């Protein structure tokens, strides 16, 4: 009997990422477990990367593609600095990542990206992408294995969905929390996801992108 | 397409201090098409025990009748009402009876025992029981419900806190599930009364 062999260029490496925008900061977080199937490859593999003073990129999906993409994004940021003498703004990085992803439209980077940072007005910003470059600016976004566990919780705790004001407890506008509160919600989200999802756990790495305090 | 997702719908149950709650959405669909928005998936089996059935709509209706029949027979023979834990085992054996041609449902049981203890349990479609001490979820929004409940639930909530917790958990999960929603009903069961409330939910 003939035996068929087929090479698959993709894998799924588990994990989850999340980003939440505040008034003048952004929290970008990801767990540090990397797995394939039921096997843990490592308990510490960072998937959130500092790009410059205003931008941090969280990646999730196929880690080889993620690494290749992040390397190329960083390389483009160096070229930009050499050509223009300034760092690239967050909205420009977002558009660049979109075109880089779409450049591989017919052999995609199997990666979900969340770009977190501060915009040119100094406000916290989150940009989320699909693997072929469709993107959107949001207040908060979760992606990866535990996306379906994390996102409804963020809808409730960050966007105040299904909540109504009562006397003595007004509903604040989404995206007005302070850093400490956002970090607490981020940690609670990941401990919950770790309880109920086997691909999430081991470590949590959180980046805070902030505007420089006025001199 | 899995037959478990053909009609859509979700159920969740939670334990509190001297109370339990069980909640469901009211959608009945045919894949992407919503057919009805009054399909309550939670049924009383005794005065203080309720069963929620998420899954294939026809099997939900069949099992609802089957459990009603078996409860009546039990009550006549035994001259007493059934304990919720006993009922959980009845559900389990009823489902395992059809091991190789199962009913496509995930049952959720919530009740207060005769000694006043809160009780919840879940099962898979062939009757594997899950006696959780906190939360039980089922249906097409089950992963979203796990995320919400794991974040919002805490031990020893009173009936008002439990109502808020289960309502926010269900509503939050429904908004991120295309196959569940179109209304929601919450029942909070205490040793003395059952509080039934219809939630104002998004109708999309």
Automatic annotation (TrEMBL), chain B:
One of its GO terms (biological process) is proteasome-mediated ubiquitin-dependent protein catabolic process. Transmembrane segments: none annotated. CDD domains: proteasome_beta_type_3. Pfam families: Proteasome (PF00227). GO terms for cellular component: cytoplasm; nucleus; proteasome core complex, beta-subunit complex. Keywords: Cytoplasm, Nucleus, Proteasome. It is found in: Cytoplasm; Nucleus. InterPro entries: Ntn_hydrolases_N, Proteasome_beta_3, Proteasome_bsu_CS, Proteasome_sua/b, Proteasome_suB-type. Component of the proteasome complex. The 26S proteasome consists of a 20S proteasome core and two 19S regulatory subunits. The 20S proteasome core is composed of 28 subunits that are arranged in four stacked rings, resulting in a barrel-shaped structure. The two end rings are each formed by seven alpha subunits, and the two central rings are each formed by seven beta subunits. The catalytic chamber with the active sites is on the inside of the barrel. Component of the proteasome, a multicatalytic proteinase complex which is characterized by its ability to cleave peptides with Arg, Phe, Tyr, Leu, and Glu adjacent to the leaving group at neutral or slightly basic pH. The proteasome has an ATP-dependent proteolytic activity. Belongs to the peptidase T1B family. This is Proteasome subunit beta.
